[in-house]
Specification:
about 475 residues; alpha+beta; three-stranded antiparallel β-sheet
């Protein structure tokens, strides 16, 4: 037995016997009755018993007190409270609530790492005077007034999409994706960030009415270049123009004008609108009203491969100034996006919806004489007549594989190898995600990554159909470098 527990009990028992005997002797000396003697003895015994139990508990608690300088401390006990797999000595330990020690240490606060290009600057509101202008200026000043000048001045606000406080073009790495040129990035930043000074409705020669905005820009100091600092504002329903721009660059075609998404307070009910860079050198390929490019002459030009290998075409070949390879690039682009307004404005190659333009205007009923159907939006630059510019690129993502327009591929025997290699590489999705992420306004307007993924799903399925068509019809894949 432990000496600490037996020593106090023996001492108090001997003391009790000694005091009892002494008390009885005293009681015998006094002349008390027997009842009183035993009552006094009982009281003394009760007091003594209570005193003994109290002292015994005090010594017991003192024996259980841990020694802070030995292995009986709480620190060493917390080691025994660990998982039993850590040692064999933990099997007999049953930790209780009193054995748990909670230690809260205030950790040193570290500053977050600053990643270049990912920190959004603080929004700073600028005091800008809002100027509203109304009225029309549709009357020509003289009889020689050209229809390409402004015919209507719209009301505008200097705050229209220009006081965002941060760029909506997100480039977090040191370089933009390799399919974008420096001019592309400059144009995208201009369209997304420039301060708007004027919004006009114009009617350039050979084009339908357009809404153009002029901007103050810091991207160039060249006066000649500043004349090109204008953008076309399109309807929110034409947002696929932005997707088309990115797809064009990834496929290596480089035939579309830069396009971004931008929000205007006075246009489109505040919804994001596609904004396309305007190039004043654009012109229709057939600029004379007496000449029209129709489906029959287009098919004839494909057979003779106009301007291929620098061969000057003969007059009877129905050739335009466009090089033969340009049509091959166009059909790849239009088939993936199912753009029908250029080559099939009457919707003769698929079953249109009631809301399609060809049905609303009654053109769908004119598919009997296919050779006479006029081609539309066939545009080039005046200083570069051999290359097409893909203009008005509204795509359709709600057309399934059973209703694709294969008429767009008719007459084409060759396709560009660079574009086809991208479709075969299984990296189209990766590149589209990386590219479209740059335009934050467009990314958010389509529902973030989940919405963008759905659009890419459609393009990937059409790409697989196109690859199957290439193999089934023996389409040649050849280099088509400009």
């Amino acid at each position: 037995m432990d000496t600490h527990s037996t020593r106090p009990r023996n001492v108090y028992w001997d003391s009790f016997i000694y005091l009892s005997v002494s008390f009885l002797k005293i009681c015998n000396c006094w002349k008390y009755s027997a009842v009183r003697k035993y009552l006094i003895i009982a009281v003394v015994c009760f007091v003594y018993l209570f005193f003994t139990v109290h002292v015994s508990r005090t010594f017991t608690r003192r024996d259980k007190r841990p020694d802070l300088w030995t292995g009986n401390s709480l620190y060493s006990q917390s080691k025994n409270d660990q998982d039993p797999a850590d040692g064999e000595g933990n099997e007999s330990v049953s930790p209780t609530r009193s054995n748990v020690v909670y230690i809260t240490l205030k950790s040193k606060r570290h500053k977050p790492a600053i990643i270049r290009g990912t920190v959004r600057p603080k929004l700073r509101r600028k005091k800008v005077k809002v100027r509203q202008q109304g009225g029309t200026q549709g009357k020509a000043k003289d009889a020689g007034h050209n229809t390409s000048t402004v015919n209507k001045r719209l009301g505008y606000s200097e705050l229209d999409g220009s006081d965002t406080g941060y760029s909506t073009i997100r480039i977090y790495s040191e370089r933009a994706p390799p399919w974008f040129s420096n001019d592309d990035i400059t144009a995208m930043r201009f369209l997304a960030e420039s301060k708007i000074t004027q919004i006009d409705e114009v009617a350039p020669r050979g084009f339908s009415s357009l809404i153009l905005f002029k901007s103050v820009t810091n991207f160039t100091d060249d006066v000649d270049e500043c004349r090109k600092c204008r953008g076309i504002v399109k309807r929110p329903l034409d947002m696929s123009e932005v997707f088309a721009f990115h797809l064009d660059r990834i496929l290596g075609l480089n035939r579309t004008l830069p396009a971004v998404s931008r929000r205007f307070h006075s246009l489109g009910d505040g919804q994001p609108c596609p904004v396309v860079l305007w190039d004043p050198s654009l012109s229709p390929v057939v600029d004379r009203p007496s000449e029209k490019l129709n489906w029959g002459s287009y098919q004839t030009s494909l057979k003779h491969k106009c301007w291929h290998r620098d061969v000057i075409p003969k007059p009877e070949w129905s050739c335009t100034s466009i090089h033969h390879h340009e049509w091959s690039k166009l059909v790849v682009f239009d088939f993936l996006l199912q753009i029908y307004e250029r080559l099939d404005k009457n919707c003769c190659g698929f079953k249109p919806r009631p809301e399609d333009t060809c049905v609303e205007l009654g053109h769908h009923e004119e598919c009997r004489d296919k050779d006479s159907i006029e081609l539309r939006h066939i545009v080039h630059r005046k200083h570069d007549p051999h290359h097409l510019v893909f203009f008005n690129n509204k795509g359709y993502f709600d057309r399934d594989e059973g209703n694709l327009n294969f008429r767009l591929l008719e007459g084409v025997k060759e396709l560009p190898d660079q574009s086809v290699s991208v479709l075969r590489s299984q990296r189209l999705r990766e590149k589209l995600l990386q590219s479209l992420f740059l335009d934050q306004q467009y990314w958010d307007s389509q529902g973030g990554r989940q919405g963008i993924e759905k659009l890419i799903d459609v393009i990937e399925r059409r790409a697989n159909v196109l690859l199957t068509y290439i193999n089934a019809h023996g389409i040649k894949v050849v280099p088509m470098n400009s």
